[in-house]
Amino acid sequence: MKDLPFEIAIRNLHEHLKSNEFPPKAADIARYDLKTQNHEFLRLETAAQFSNLDQWATDVSEPPEGFWEEIKAKLKGGDGE
Length: 81
Hints:
Layout: H1 6-19, H2 26-30, H3 39-58, H4 67-75
């Protein structure tokens, strides 16, 4: 469930508790089947992605030493070492 936004997990938990007398399972909380049909989920997911973009835009740290050389070697079919 690490990829599921917290707000969606809480909403799914509340919905489960309203409609089911048994304790929820992880699948009841995640409810991946509703992701693409649920406007609220899409709104929250979009907000989370914009938040990520904002965070990534402020992170201007340089890649580790040798990063680009390793990538170039991998693209040429080598193992980078």
